[in-house]
Write a structure and sequence with these properties.
2 domains; five-stranded mixed beta sheet; alpha/beta; elongated; two-stranded parallel ribbon
């Protein structure tokens, strides 16, 4: 079961400036929600690849939030994997911005919101998913556990899959539920290391292009 992101009122007592990035080959569309801005999301676009302009615009968002509230807020971003997602992630991280790269297949939206859309997610959906994650939405935990089961199926020779089998065998098949949750956490950390540092997961078989 995937996490479903449906339109819902957005909490305005934010502890950060939330930003989603829709990355295409020609344009980056930026959707943001800042503290003390009510429920209104703001949008702007920059030329694809113009990271300097993007960082400048984010600085403006931070300055406006500071002016409205008297507090300095961190910026947290979310963008889909693919295209510029990974190198941009590394750039944002170096700039002290928390960046989250997601697989669009892990976020399910309603059929109505899918109409007139491709497989890519719109900025508002990404933003809501990011905020749900930061609130600890239990649906996303379900998504992680489902991803762990899929990992066992498609990467049976990986070190993580071997660890899971050894652990369940040692427990004589008991505590499988807690073990799959532990695997999901390990998988999340391993994927994070891959995204941020390029560290490959031991034993993974990749498809040849």
């Amino acid at each position: 079961m995937n996490a479903t992101v449906n339109p819902a009122p957005i909490q305005t007592d934010l502890g950060a400036i939330f930003v989603s990035l829709e990355l295409s080959r020609s344009t980056w569309l930026v959707t943001s929600l800042s503290p003390a801005s009510g429920e209104k999301m703001s949008k702007f676009s920059v030329i694809a690849g113009d990271a300097a302009d993007l960082l400048s615009r984010m600085s403006v968002l931070r300055d406006k939030a500071l002016h409205r509230t008297g507090r300095a807020y961190p910026i947290i971003t979310i963008q889909e994997a693919g295209l510029d997602g990974f190198w941009l992630h590394r750039l944002l991280t170096r700039e002290g911005i928390e960046s989250n790269v997601v697989d669009p297949a892990s976020i399910t939206v309603s059929r109505r919101r899918r109409q007139a859309k491709t497989d890519r997610l719109d900025g508002e959906t990404l933003l809501r998913a990011l905020m749900a994650h930061k609130r600890g939405d239990p649906r996303l935990r379900v998504t992680l556990v489902q991803s762990a089961w899929l990992w066992l199926r498609h990467q049976p020779n990986s070190a993580l899959s071997k660890w899971f089998r050894e652990r369940t065998q040692a427990n004589h098949g008991r505590r499988k539920k807690s073990t799959i949750v532990a695997l999901a956490r390990k998988l999340l950390v391993a994927l994070w290391k891959y995204v941020t540092s390029g560290v490959l997961i031991e034993g993974v078989i990749t498809n040849k292009v």
